[in-house]
Amino acid sequence: MRRTIAMLLATLLLLSCAAVAEDYGFNETGYPIVDEEITVTCLFPRMPEQPTDFSDMWFVKKCRDELGINIEYQLVEKSAFDERKALVLASDDYPDVFFGGITAEDEQLYGGQGIFIDLSGLIDRYAPNFKALMEQYPEIETAIRAENGAIYSMPVIYTAARDRITAASWMNMQWIENVGMETPATLDDLYDLLVAFRDQDANGNGDPTDEIPVSYPADSLDFQRSILAALGIVDAVDDVLNGQYVYVPMTEQYKEYLKYMKKLYTEDLLDKDVFILSAEEYGAKLKNNLVGIGNESAPYSYGVEDYEVYGRIPVLTSDINTEPIWPGNQYVYRNTGNFVITDKCEYPEAMVRLVDYFFTTEGSLMVRSGPEQGTWDGEGGWKVIKDEEGNELYTEITYDKEKYTSYWGLRAWNAPMSMPYNSSDYMGFIMLAGDARSAFAWETLTSSRPLDILKINYPLVVFTQEEQDTLNITVDLQNYVDSMEVKFITGEADIDAAWDEYVATLQKMGVDDVIAVKQAAYERVIG
Predict the structure, then answer these.
(1) Which of 91, 136, 419, 442 has the fewest C-beta atoms under 10 angstroms from its C-beta?
(2) Is the pLDDT of residue 113 over 80?
(3) Does residue 129 register a pLDDT over 50?
(4) CB–CB of 174/309 below 8 Å?
(5) What span, in angstroms and rounded, lies between the C-alpha atoms of 171 and 181?
(6) Which is nearest to 119 in space by CA: 460, 350, 333?
(7) Per-residue pLDDT for 527 more than 80?
(8) Cα 60 vs. chain centroid, distance in angstroms?
(9) pLDDT for 222-241, tens place per residue?
(10) Distance CA 301, CA 303 (A)
(11) What mean pLDDT is predicted for residues 374-384?
């Protein structure tokens, strides 16, 4: 019933907007989107790599000159954005739109108050590109439509194969060759390999005692992901097994994960510093060729020059789980809302058309890839190289290497990056070709993890406000789980002896209510 009422209200809003749209020269099709330039304000989380003023940004000028929409960015440092966002929304001094930085909780709260408007009717009429993607990938609508029928935000959509694969740890393939072993296929194989790393001169420097078989910075989950997947679990918190939601830290598979990790820790196969190690400290160990298996961040990002000796840790199995699986990413990037319209915006239909344009190839390239060579008055950009028949062969990237440390730096300076767009395979073709290291990183990931073994842990859903209130305890639950994980792995707490008490504590904290809410939401999604 609530959804029906919401749809009716959206229809009435759409009719009123249509009348207003005529007043500012809005075009339902074609470009520019408006006959006379309009200006909208946007509060935006600025990254350190970006300019402090977006008014002369290539992207902003292109939207203004070719589409008729001038986006007036009010920039806030990303680290301070949440605080500023809360202040402006509470003070009634908020902008016309937000591009990025909006959480699902924000949507529930400010959508319910009417500050964020329902986009569903506007999408139906003015967003054919986005609608086509929703029809092709139904899980997109599941992830963004609230239970009351409203859609308060439009997301980034990942359709590229490489974006569907969750990242994996790197391993030193030269070390494997040096100790005369094969790449592991099971958890037992991995253990044997790590023992060889520990006991032999795996790095070939003449010292058989300085090798660290496994290391990673504190809070890194990449190595944990491999162990859990080998045990049949694809997330450290939420998963669905046999049609039932499970809270992973209470499962037998998680208990086995803890035992495996404790074994590695006790036998000096796991760096004793992983729970306190900074990224800089880890990087120094990696750069000095002391680490056999590390985290997901590419070795070259830590200054390793011979990064091509690294590969990805294979997908492992175990006695508990003989079916290779790997966690997959969903089509919708949902941890920050990428576009909402507030009730202050006088041009909602124009803004929905603008965002819908960003889901085209041309628009996506504007948002994420920056300018094409030869199409603007600046230096650098991407260019597709074709043969005589017009077939696209490869791309080349140019940029001022004194001004920008990478192609990412060029793109961040000339495009906002954090806005809705479609991350397609073609986008990857454009962006990666100019960076051999990034291309190597993605090739090692995609070649080691076929798409048919990917498993989504739990669907993206929009929880009701009441459900969200129940889920507020998940932060406290996770803090307790994290603290106990350290104790279990280091041996401060005995896994078997303390397990029942550990589970009982989670139940006292309210985990059963969380499980009930997530099971109900899961059933709602799957019908």
Answers:
(1) 91
(2) yes
(3) yes
(4) yes
(5) 13
(6) 350
(7) no
(8) 25
(9) 999 999 999 999 999 999 99
(10) 6
(11) 84
Q: How many residues does the chain have?
A: 527
Structure tokens belonging to residue 61: 């000028």
Q: Which DSSP category does 63 fall into?
A: I
Higher pLDDT, 144 or 41: 41
Candidates 49, 178, 82, 96; CA nearest to 344 is 96
Judged against a pLDDT cut of 60, whether residue 139 lies above it is answered with yes
From the number of C-beta atoms within 10 Å of its C-beta (0-12, 13-18, 19+), residue 406 rates as: middle
Contact between 429 and 395 under an 8 Å Cβ cutoff? The reply is yes
H/E stretch holding 332 reads strand 332-333
Give how far Cα 470 sits from Cα of 46, 162, 494, Å.
Answer: 32, 35, 31
Question: For 404-434, how does the pLDDT look when each residue is reduced to its tens digit (9 = 90+)?
Answer: 878 888 899 999 988 999 988 888 888 776 5
Q: Which amino acid does the sequence have at 216?
A: Y
Average pLDDT over residues 213-228: 94
**CA gap 79, 473 in Å, rounded:** 24
Specify whether the CB–CB gap between 121 and 10 falls below 8 A: yes
d(CA 225, CA 277): 18
Can you read off the two tokens belonging to residue 443? 């090739």
Beta-bridge partner residues of 327: 455
What is d(CA 488, CA 262) in angstroms, rounded to the nearest whole number? 7
- pLDDT at residue 155, as a whole number: 92
Supply the DSSP symbol for 52: S
User: Do residues 381 and 372 make contact, with C-beta atoms less than 8 angstroms apart?
Assistant: yes
| Reduced DSSP (H G I as helix, E B as strand, rest coil) percent helix, strand, coil of the chain, to 5 | 45, 15, 40
Tokens at residue 80, please? Answer: 């301070």
What is the SS3 assignment for 3? helix
Please state whether beta strands 422-423 and 156-158 pair in parallel, antiparallel, or not at all (unpaired).
Answer: parallel
Q: What is the pLDDT of residues 471-492, one digit of tens each?
A: 999 999 999 999 999 999 999 9
Return d(Cα 220, Cα 218) in angstroms, integer: 6
Instruction: Give tens-digit pLDDT for 47-78.
Output: 998 999 999 999 999 999 999 999 999 999 98
**Nearest residue to 332 (alpha-carbon basis) of 456, 232, 222, 236:** 456
DSSP state of 358: T
How far is Cα 88 from Cα 111, in angstroms, rounded to an integer? 15
The per-residue pLDDT of the chain, averaged, comes to 91
Rounded to whole angstroms, the Cα distance separating 435 from 231 reads 35
pTM value is: 0.76
Structure tokens at 366: 């504007």
CB atoms within 10 A of CB 527: 4
